[in-house]
Amino acid sequence: MEHTRRASVEGWRMLATVAIVAPALCFATMLFDMGIVWRLIWSVGVLLVSGLVVAYAIGNIRAGGIFICRLTDEEFFQLIPDPACGESFQVKLSDISKIECHEGFGESPSDEWYLHTKEGRYRITTNYGNPYRKFAETIQKALPDLEKIQT
């Protein structure tokens, strides 16, 4: 099982998204009677979040490279071209002692999956459109005796 995506494609996609969504959210305030103070607070919030997304996008465009997440019969490999977007690592399946699911809000998109080995704890990234749940489920099927932790 493998998932790849060019970092620059991810960056341009995020820039296009923020270029469409941010102005729409700012103009949407005109449809509601929010008052000038709440409209200003809303607009500043949108600008702050937009700034973070633009920084993420530019980092990916400049980093270049290709994101790779690969699961074989022997190992799990994750290569992230921009270190700000997650950790690159390679672990043998035989070294995995536990798998952890940290659920933000039940089965929402905010859950995070971690692999535990003797060397440390590794996060399966949710960036780059990575089907992280599918990787986690496949690892659990390949290692049926693996301890699962819910947090």
From TrEMBL:
<keyword id="KW-1133">Transmembrane helix</keyword>
<protein>
    <recommendedName>
        <fullName>PH domain-containing protein</fullName>
    </recommendedName>
</protein>
<feature type="transmembrane region" description="Helical">
    <location>
        <begin position="38"/>
        <end position="58"/>
    </location>
</feature>
<keyword id="KW-0812">Transmembrane</keyword>
<feature type="transmembrane region" description="Helical">
    <location>
        <begin position="12"/>
        <end position="32"/>
    </location>
</feature>
<keyword id="KW-0472">Membrane</keyword>
